[in-house]
Here is the input.
Amino acid sequence: MGAIVVTGSTRGIGLGLADAFLARGCSVIVSGRTRASVDAAVLALAEKHGSARVFGVACDVTSASALGALWDESARTFGGVDVWINNAGTCNAAKDFVDLPTEEIATVLDTNLRGTVLASHVALRGMLAQRRGKLFNMEGWGSRGEWSRGLTPYCTTKRALRYFTDALVKETRGEPIQIGTLSPGMVATDLLVSSWEHGAPENWLRMKWLFHFVIDPPEPVCAFLADKVLGNDKSGAHYTWMTPLRLGARFFQPRYWRRRPLAGTALERLGERG
Here is the structure.
């Protein structure tokens, strides 16, 4: 039995996925940019689930050699890789494209798009060699053409990743590999708060009403996605947490009108100023 690699899993959705897979008896490789962040995440997960099934590797997903080392160490430690989830990603501040620093645009493109493409290249080669495996890429706002003012670079990468994933499904047809996407919706993480907090205030004020209905804590979302990944038996699957049916139903449930999903964060204070 191999293991599950989750890139960008030292915090946020990635850490939530690692926790969910460990809770289901899987072995998990935690990965992040720095050794310190990886060690901290591994320690927290080991205290909860034991140390035998969790392992950490520092990896910059924009480096092909680092990604190769991530695969090699994971396969060597657990006897193979059953699942590889390309979760590592970032988001720009919610500002108009022309107002963003060039460096910030480059970081979003490099991490979200280049990182996922390079990681998929490494993972697919390894899975074809071992003749098994599941590869999932993380979708986001923009994957199906959604648009929000201020998120153009981020949404562009997610739109491109839907095409990329569908292309890989076609290229690997007939192989013992399953490829798909995971869509977590809007999850209350530091990344989400930061992108809106440092964006143009009018963009946040335009969107904040919707957050009462769409934003969720990571635990139920990651549990749902983990179950879908483990139960998946086909290539080309797109697993979505916030479906139109789920969202529509929330508008008729009073608790979603009353809740404060971002209480205590900078966004709550920004909303109050607005």
